[in-house]
Amino acid sequence: MASPDDRPPHELIPIDLAPRGDWRDPSVDFEARRGSWCYPGSVKALAAMGVANPREWSPTDADWRLPKDWKQTVLEGIRERLLKYRTFHVFMDACVRCGACADKCHFFIGSGDPKNMPVLRAELLRSIYRREFTTAGRIFGELAGGRELDEAVLKEWFYYFYQCTECRRCSVYCPFGIDTAEITIIARELMLLVGLAINWVVEPVANCHRTGNHLGIQPHTFKDNIEFLLGELAEVTGVRIEPQINRKGAEVLFVVPSSDYFLDPGTYTFVGYLLLFEHIGLDYTLSAYASEGGNFGLFSSHDTMKKLNWKIYHEARRLGVKWILGGECGHMWRVLHQYMDTMNGPADFLEVPRSAATGTVFEHAASTKAVHICEFTADLIHHGRLKLDPSRNDKLRVTFHDACNTARAMGLLDEPRAVIKAACNHFFEMPETTIREHTFCCAGGAGLGTDENMEMRLRGGLPRGNAVRHVRDRHGVNRLACICAIDRATLPPLCDYWAPGVDVSGVHELLGNALIMDGENERTTDLRGEPLAPPGATGGPTHA
Amino acid sequence: MGAVISLVAVAGLALAAMIAVGVGGLHFLVGVVVPGGAFVVCVVGLVCRVTSWGRSAVPFRVPTTCGQQRSLAFIRHDELDNPSGALGAIGRVAGEALLFRSLFRNHRVELDRGREKVSYVASKYLWAAAMAFHWSMLVILLRHFRFFVDRVPAWVELLQRWDGFFAVGLPVVYLTTVLFIGAGLFLLLRRLLDPKLRAISLPADYFALYLLLGIAASGVLMRHVEKVDVVQVKAAIVGWASLEAVPPVGVGVWYFVHVFLVSVLLAYLPFSKLLHAPGVFLSPTRNLANSNRRVRHVNPSNPPLEGRSYAEWEGEFRDRLLAAGLPLDRE
């Protein structure tokens, strides 16, 4: 199939949201659906993870070379997880198929594929559960909504559970709070037991385990990159910052997603952070060992998540810091907020985080000892500790994309907005059914942000892209701010496709533009080296 | 397909009750033994099911947050949709159980292909029908309380009076009866007519609706068409409840159909999707507070896993670290 980039939006959009056919038929034509699935995990990465059954295979093969006893393994896996996770157990039983979730999934809205309705995505697994683990299903089989687990079903799982970004939007509308992310996490664990995984997940995991970050950046390159970025920053601002890496005795360990120091436009956000720290004189260090906040373990298995996350407290203890500050990243914060303390705590060797610049004690992080950079910065702004010139962002008309995880697994909604409003004069919200807890995924989360999956990404990106286009047309918005590393990687192609003319950046890039540093040059460009708008060109402040 | 099979099943059950009583004269079986058995199955089944959920661990605190978290003092947080403690979480669950708050958020997506536009239209019908259906069911259940006790309590009298406020018909037609049947029919039509709903509906979904509507219909026929002798019915039920069971005398077939379908419902409940009732209270995405960073949540079976240690990492990259001038733990 041709690359979706060659196909204009009006060809992708004739989507029929009135599904036909019987979903119980599991067959998926992988050959015909190229562009909507991801390549399987490489032998090397799977072996490095210690996963069962590493082998060369392709979803288009007839024989996926599953282990002989795969069915037994999967059923045993379900049995075990029903006892281990109440979420899973209750969600297998409680659904009434009311359909409230049906049109809440970005992949369904963008593809019209009925199995992308969250209720049916869950039924793919639930039907097996019913058949094998419930009285009614054992007796009445298909009549009770049961299905036999066979290879076709497993292949269907591989297709659809890697077509869910674990964004939890459906769970907002479900009267029982059924969270498809939980079901997808379990389904992916089950598949991993028999060697089914995608490379975009397992390779970052293997890299992260070995080098400390998803991109496989080794310590010397880590330092080189940061020095390079700080060199560019010095050219723009005249402010020279020394990199702080693996420094024992610093007050704060600062953890970021690795793409922030490696990939544009995350790099501008990265220098934005460091400019802020310089501005207030924060005593911090980065770590080349715990050089990844993101955690693709979340997208493969609970155990993998735990092992990767383990390094953060381990490094905080080794460096002797007092608390942890985390950069802008969605799923990283899902892990830091909802899993880290439970998995690898208690962090009793750290202190309750306290901002030296304002004296604020972050009581809400009293146990984890991890504070989100937007909380930290919003507090600085509130206390008037930052010298800001928002007019430097006047050429930007900004909207804000809530990351799925910070919105629906945390509730970090107003902190980033406080930062944007202090740093920019022109801020506009997208329609309210597409922001805050209703926010739409970038369609590249949970390990799906890979290029072979581009058609599905663009389809799933329709609701977000359409909302961006709406504010672009109505308010002239030209910048989409976000607080997620995956967003910074996946929203640019999404915007190019659905809302051309809108650029993507992190919130702290905008802050970095506005920060007035001691001894700085007169700024003629933003952190990207692009010219600032001429004074007075854009009129007075507008916050809509 | 599922819609037809289930209709046949429920109609068949009703017919079976009719034949058993009308032809077979099995009044005692249908009026006493079956409901007794069904009641036992229901109670035991529910206890088993809920304890089996309870036995499943809650390894992580994973609430779905639907509002601003409690973080900085100057940012107003949303305690109900993002509870910071037990009280807020109780409020949240109560809002779900009593008011169906999540369902109230519902909207419908519309695609305008010509303008390539996605829009979201508020859609409260499902919420309204669900509220009408469940609340009238509760009132109807409570009204039935008068059949189970000798002296009708004052609150039941009051409930009846309000419910029959419009004083239409003789005997009075209760508002909740109309609401229940109306909402039930709406929910059924939605399943039959909306293509999305048709695609996701299982036979069990239709079965539950037909069964409930069948119970309502037989009740209406008994009360308003057959005009059953309430005194006899009450005598029978009070007797049944006090384990001195006799089938009622001089009541028609609809009473037995009604009782039989209720029995089927009771016995079916623990094995069916009708189990969603306790599910509301046990759902970890709703009943846990978002206090994750303030109070540690303990996983009873936290596996003893460690990642790659710093020492091992430093060992592998020793030369690189040295060349880059980064500090080493082991010189």
Commentary on this structure:
The complex is a heterodimer of chains A (544) and B (331). Chain A is 44% helix and 5% strand. Chain A is built from 23 helices and 9 strands. In chain A, the strands form 3 sheets. A 4-stranded parallel beta sheet of chain A has the order 2-1-3-4. A 3-stranded parallel beta sheet of chain A has the order 5-7-8. A two-stranded parallel ribbon of chain A has the order 6-9. In chain A, strand 7, helix 22 and strand 8 form a beta-alpha-beta unit. In chain A, helix 6 packs across helix 10 and helix 8 crosses helix 10 (180-193). By secondary structure, chain B is mainly alpha-helical. Chain B has one domain (2-324): Transmembrane di-heme cytochromes, Chain C (Fumarate Reductase Cytochrome B subunit, Up-down Bundle). In chain B, 60% of the residues lie in helices and 4% in strands. In chain B, strands 1-2 form a two-stranded antiparallel ribbon. The termini of chain B are far apart. In chain B, 38% of the residues are buried.
Any idea of the CATH topology of chain B? Fumarate Reductase Cytochrome B subunit
Rg of chain B to the nearest angstrom? 28 Å
What is CATH's topology name of the largest domain in chain A? Glutathione S-transferase Yfyf (Class Pi), Chain A, domain 2
CATH architecture identity of chain B:
Up-down Bundle
- Anisotropy-based shape of chain A: globular
User: SSE string of chain B, helix = H, strand = E?
Assistant: HHHHEEHHHHHHHHHHH
Query: Please, what is the CATH homologous superfamily of chain B?
Result: Transmembrane di-heme cytochromes, Chain C
* Main sheet summary of chain B: 2 strands, antiparallel
Strand content of chain A: 5-15%
The total strand number of chain A stands at 9
Q: What portion of residues of chain A is helical?
A: 40-55%
Q: From the structure provided, what is the oligomeric state, counting identical versus distinct chains? A: heterodimer
Supply the number of helical segments of chain A: 23
The neighbouring-strand order within the major sheet of chain A is 2-1-3-4
The total count of helices of chain B amounts to 15
| Average pLDDT figure of chain A | 95
Shape of chain B: elongated
Radius of gyration of chain A: 23 Å
Uncertain ranges of chain B: none
